[in-house]
Structures are given as structure tokens and as C-alpha cells.
């Protein structure tokens, strides 16, 4: 199992944790891929454990949320 963090700094000030197999994540190539590139946010990962993902999410200083896939 791998974990990813999506950091979003435009729509909402948050960092969301996903598992790599999540349909929204797709191992960091998911639904947030768009022509704006990193204008809206960026993926971090993969991380081996939920703890590591959580630490990175916390380190962004944003509101940390877990997607329903976690
Ligand atoms: Zn997800």
C-alpha cells in the first residue's frame, strides 16, 4: 500500500491523504492533473506508511484531511 498527499493552496487550504490505488489519486496522476499544472496544488509521495504521509501533510501547515479511500 502506498500513500500520497495532495496539497491544495487555491480552492481550499488543505492537504488530503489518499492511497495510491484511489481513483482520484491514481498514484499521483489523478483527477487533479490539469493544464494549470502546479498552479492549484501538487502531489507529494508515494509514502510507504500512513504515518509518513500524515507527517508530510502536517508539515504543509494546512488543514489535513483523509480522503474516504484511506
Ligand atoms: Zn482518495
Please give a structural write-up:
This protein has 70 residues and is of the alpha+beta class. It has one domain (3-66). The chain contains one helix and four strands, in the order E-E-E-H-E. The protein has one helix spanning 50-59; strands at 3-8, 14-19, 41-47, 63-66. A hairpin with a 5-residue loop joins strand 1 (3-8) and strand 2. The structure holds zinc ion.
Features:
70 residues, four-stranded mixed β-sheet, 1 helix, 4 strands, 14% helix, binds zinc ion
Briefly summarize what is shown:
With about 70 residues, the protein is an alpha+beta fold. It has one helix at about 50-60, and strands at about 5-10, 15-20, 40-45, 65.
Secondary structure topology:
Blueprint: E1 3-8, E2 14-19, E3 41-47, H1 50-59, E4 63-66
Parallel strand pairs: 2-4
Antiparallel strand pairs: 1-2, 1-3
The structure holds zinc ion (ZN).
Strand order of the largest sheet: 3-1-2-4
Bin the strand percentage: 25-35%
Structural class: alpha+beta
Let me know the largest β-sheet.
4 strands, mixed
Q: What is the overall shape?
A: globular
Beta strand count: 4
Total of helices: 1
- What are the secondary-structure elements, in order, as H or E? EEEHE
Bound molecules: zinc ion
Distance between the termini: 10 Å
Quote the average pLDDT. 87
Please give the share of residues in helix.
Answer: 10-25%
Unreliable runs: none
